Write the structure tokens for this entry.
Amino acid sequence: MVLRGYVPTSEETLQTLAALRLQSLNSDFSTHAPFPCLEELFPPHVLHARLPAPRHRTPTKCRGARLRAGLLAGGLWGQALAKQRAERDQRLRGRLREEGASTMAAIVEKWKLLQGMGRPEAMAAYVALVREWPGFGSTLFDVDLRTVRRWCGGGVGAGPQRLWLGIGAKAVSLYKPGEPEPLDSFCYGRISSFGASDSSTFRLSVEDQDLLFETSQVDEIAQLLNTYLTSAGAQQPPRPQEPATSPPDPDPTTPPQGLCPTAGPWQHQPPVGSFHS
């Protein structure tokens, strides 16, 4: 999860984690110790984020200019553009190598400071650093939030919005990628139902709203949620039973209830042909 960028923290902490990993793998620093490649120690996306963003030219509105561009695309102009792209890619690769060498040097310096630390201590220190993130222990899934449908008068909010869906032992949380604090968090008592709307859409009903997520891991999310919800239900003490009473006669002047129901016990509602609980 660290290497895939699912632990939002500073570069300094990521370098320390990499040094602890080296200490765990190779013990004390030595020039003869085998060095893993940087991608096995440090999240690559952090290095790529340092590179300048590619410039996009604003499309011209002049019809004549568009015509000339089209005529020249397969000739000298197209060759010049291809040469420019190749030179730009070469510069970016060189910059990426420089950033990688600088990061590896910083990791090695931190590794040298860990001399004498045993493997169990290095592993414990590694986990202690990762546990500082409040979402530690959650399984994160990349999802696109498509819509938020409210059951009572709230209308429909449209997406898509790329998020992390964190499934933990006590709650479900939504994170903006790279942000340490969740945008929202739902304890399992607030979840009324969940299931697969189709093979790539996961539905999560929380109190008065339906959250629809586009994801390729519908079954994995549902199975994990089912496991945690079953465990949470087993840990709750049984509620005392109340004596049965006859319901009062309905008042014809009272409007019907239940148009906006509160969240009751969670219900797993997969469609036919989907996963099994």
Q: What stands out?
A: Residues 139-235 form a domain with the PH-domain like fold (CATH 2.30.29.30). The mean pLDDT is 78. The beta strands are 139-150, 156-167, 171-175, 184-187, 191-198, 201-206, 209-214, 267-268. Helices lie at 11-26, 44-50, 63-72, 76-112, 119-130, 218-235.
